[in-house]
Design a protein that fits this description.
- There is one protein chain.
- With 111 residues, this protein is of the alpha+beta class.
- It has helices at residues 2-6, 8-17, 20-35, 41-45, and strands spanning 47-51, 59-66, 81-88, 94-96, 105-106.
- The chain has one domain (2-106).
- A five-stranded antiparallel beta sheet has the order 1-2-3-4-5.
- The radius of gyration is 13 Å and the shape is globular.
- The chain starts with a helix and ends in a 5-residue tail after the last strand.
């Protein structure tokens, strides 16, 4: 799976630092990003996932940010938020805020 490689480093650190529910939110977010084509392959390689404090065991909340480094370019001291995902951990339904009003709306199927 491409996303597991793309976000692998972030997911590995998450497994050490967060409980199982947080790891599940990261895994589901990565899968949703890939399945719904929310990012281009280059954007996937240059992105990282950040767990939101406002999430809980029922609703996983994950932020997607640009990663700036030698490979991706950009200022490493600056992190641009791309969008947030809210995932219903029971049903797998996902919402994101990538729209002009920055409102949580259902993630569209892009395939």
């Amino acid at each position: 799976m491409k996303i597991s490689t793309v976000f692998g480093l972030v997911l590995s650190f998450a497994a050490l630092a967060f409980p199982v529910a947080a790891q599940d939110a990261f895994n589901r977010a990565a899968r949703i990003i890939e399945e719904h084509c929310l990012l281009t392959p280059k954007a996937q390689r240059c992105s990282k996932l950040v767990l939101r404090d406002s999430g809980n065991e029922r609703i996983g909340k994950v932020g997607v940010y640009e990663k700036h480094d030698k490979t991706c370019g950009g200022d490493p001291d600056v992190e641009h938020r791309l969008f947030d995902l809210e995932i219903d951990m029971k049903t797998g339904a996902a919402k994101w805020d990538n729209n002009p009003k920055i409102e949580m709306r259902p993630v569209p199927l892009r395939r």
